[in-house]
TrEMBL record:
Pathway annotation: Protein modification; protein glycosylation
Similarity comment text for this entry: Belongs to the dolichyldiphosphatase family.
CDD domains the record matches: PAP2_dolichyldiphosphatase
EC number(s) from the headed UniProt entry: 3.6.1.43
Catalytic reactions of this protein: a di-trans,poly-cis-dolichyl diphosphate + H2O = a di-trans,poly-cis-dolichyl phosphate + phosphate + H(+)
Source organism of this protein record: Lepidopterella palustris CBS 459.81
Regions crossing the membrane: 26-47, 91-110, 130-149, 156-174
GO biological process: lipid biosynthetic process; protein N-linked glycosylation
The organism's place on the tree of life at top rank: Eukaryota
Catalytic class of the enzyme: hydrolase
Gene Ontology CC annotation, any one: endoplasmic reticulum membrane
Listed name of the protein: Dolichyldiphosphatase
Role played: Required for efficient N-glycosylation. Necessary for maintaining optimal levels of dolichol-linked oligosaccharides. Hydrolyzes dolichyl pyrophosphate at a very high rate and dolichyl monophosphate at a much lower rate. Does not act on phosphatidate.
Segments forming domain Phosphatidic acid phosphatase type 2/haloperoxidase: 53-172
Length: 232
């Protein structure tokens, strides 16, 4: 009988949980949030070409690189009941979602200044505050799930959250300096950025309203032309 090399498991979306525990099952799905957010990042960058989203994703990847380095520097093992691979300090999930939620909150509260249009009324500051709180509560749920599933100790999750928070503040300050110094505008004027149709509209308008006014104007003109043809 022909022998084959033992197969390996791609653990990117492989989560251990207790099938008899409904909370454990929910936590298993929460563990997939970072992967889902990466898909959201890629989709928004490709479809909207917004430089703000690209900067946020660059910070997210830099935060992941920091976590990779910290784990190999600290070299603290995961809980004994855990069957996963790699070191556990700090928790990459906690660091990922903390960076995301805080960066999103700071953008919504301090950088995002949407203006109302004829077809859309943007969220008020209070609504953006509620959305920010919801994002942070969701991040806390993802981080807590890592402890519940025995992938990390509470200390590893707390350190991961602290690392993500510090990096989020530093990255937001860094991108603010880039904007004030004119580097973002310079980057958008480069040949590559113009060929990729990169833009910087989400700071002053909502993603849901992007292009909607132009679409409404074109649709009304088309209907007016069709109505004029029918009356002839």
């Amino acid at each position: 009988m022909e022998e084959y090399a033992p197969l390996a498991s791609l653990s990117l979306t492989h989560v251990h949980y207790n099938p008899a525990d409904r909370i454990s099952y929910i936590c298993a799905w929460l563990a997939l949030v970072p992967q889902g957010l990466c898909i959201v990042y890629a989709t928004l960058i490709w479809s909207n070409r917004e430089v703000e989203i690209l900067l946020m994703f660059a910070g997210q990847m830099a935060c992941e690189a920091l976590n990779w380095g910290l784990k190999r520097y600290i070299k603290e093992e995961r809980p004994r009941a855990m069957h996963g691979k790699g070191y556990g300090m700090p928790s990459s999930h906690a660091q990922f979602v903390t960076f995301f939620s805080l960066t999103l909150a700071m953008f919504l509260l301090f950088r995002h200044v949407p203006h109302p249009t004829e077809t859309h009324t943007p969220f008020t500051f209070f609504q953006r505050l509620l959305l920010s709180i919801l994002a942070m509560i969701s991040a806390a749920a993802v981080a807590s799930s890592r402890v519940y599933l025995n992938y990390h100790t509470p200390k590893q999750v707390l350190v991961g959250a602290a690392a993500g928070a510090v990096f989020a503040f530093l990255w937001f300050a860094f991108t603010t300096c880039l904007r004030r110094a004119g580097w973002v505008d310079w980057g958008l004027d480069t040949y590559l950025a113009r060929q990729l149709r990169m833009r910087d509209l989400v700071v002053e308008e909502d993603l849901v309203d992007s292009g909607w006014g132009r679409w409404e104007e074109r649709r009304m003109k088309r209907r007016a032309l069709e109505g004029a043809r029918k009356t002839r």
